[in-house]
Amino acid sequence: MSLITVDRITVGYGSAPILRNVSLTIAPGEIVTIVGPNGSGKTTLLRALIGAVRPKTGTIRQKPGLRIGYVPQKLHIDPTLPMTVERFLNLPRHASRAECLRALDRAGVPDLSGEQMSGLSGGQMQRVLLARALISEPEILLLDEATQGLDQPGSAAFYQQIEEVRRQTGCAVLMISHELHVVMSASDRVICLNGHVCCEGTPEIVSAAPEYRALFGTGTGGALALYRHEHDHAHDETCSHPHAAGHSHAHHPTEAAE
Fold it and tell me: What are the Cα distances from residue 189, in Å, to 32, 137, 169, 174, 248?
C-alpha cells in the first residue's frame, strides 16, 4: 500500500495555478527526490502534502494514521532566547529524554542535547531539525531543501545521514533538492517538476530524458557523471538494501533552486 497517493491535483494561490494535474505515489521505504527550476512548484507540492494548502482539484490520499516527519529549509530562533536542544525537541509536545537522545543519535549528533540552540552551526541546526522530525517515529520524512546554506561536504554528510536513517528505520523519504549531484547519490526515484510532472523514474532514466535536459541543460552529454567516494566502501551494505537501487554517486555541473 502506498503511503501517499496524489491524483491529478491542481494547486494555486490565486487564479493562476502553480501545479497542474500532478500525480505521484510514495511507497514505503523509498527515497524520492523532487527537482525543478525556480518557481516550478516544488515547495507548493510539499505544502499540499502536509495539508498547509488545499488543492483546487484532484485528491491527496494518505495511508490511515500516517506519521509524517517534516524538516524545513531553516528555522529562525531569537539568539537572545535561552533554549537547549533538548528543550527545543520537546516543542510542541513533550518527549522523554530517551526519545530525545535516540532521535539525536539517529540524526548523527548524539552529544548536542545540552547545547544552546543559538550556538549551533548551520549543519548542527539541520541535524537537530532532523532529530525533531524523527521523534514521532515517522513512516515518511519530508525535507524541503534541508541543506540550503550548507557547503557541499556538509550537504553530502547530511544526505548520507538521511540514507542511514532510512536504513535504520525503514521510513520513506521525499525531499526537494537544488543540488543535482545529490540526486544520484541519495535517491531511488526522481520526479522532475515544472508546474507539472515532466518526467520521473530512476536517476539514470530522468537524467537522460529530453524534458530534464531542456530544464537543466545537457552538461556532460546529458548524463550525470558517476563517481564513488572512499566512504562508500564502508557503506556497501546500505546499497544492498532492497530499496536502495540506483544509489551510485554522481555529479552534475548545473544546480537549480526552488
Answer: 5, 23, 19, 10, 12
Mean of the pLDDT values across residues 85-95? Answer: 92
158-197: pLDDT as tens digits: 988 999 999 999 999 999 987 787 777 789 999 999 999 9
Is the pTM above the cut of 0.90? Answer: no
Cβ atoms of 249 and 184 within 8 Å: the answer is yes
State the cell numbers at 131: 532529530
Cell numbers describing residue 205: 532514466
* Domains in the chain with CATH codes: 24-53+63-67+140-258 (3.40.50.300), 74-137 (no CATH)
Where do the H-state alpha helices sit in the chain? 42-49, 85-89, 97-106, 122-134, 152-169, 180-186, 203-207, 210-216, 236-239
φ, ψ for residue 149, nearest 5 deg: 95, -10
pLDDT tens-place string over residues 103-152: 999 999 999 999 999 999 989 999 999 999 999 999 999 999 888 888 88
The CA-based diameter of the chain, rounded to the nearest angstrom, is 52
Cβ within 8 Å of residue 226, ≥6 positions away: 184, 248, 249, 250
Residue type, 173: V
Whether cis (ω within 30° of 0) applies to the bond prior to 92 is yes
Mean pLDDT, residues 75-103 taken together: 92
What is the DSSP secondary structure assignment for residue 231, as one 8-state letter?
G
Torsion angle in degrees (nearest 10) through CA of 164, 165, 167, 171:
-150
Q: What angle do CA 201, 202, 205 make, to 5 degrees?
A: 80
From the list 140, 120, 132, the residue with the least C-alpha distance to 4 is 140
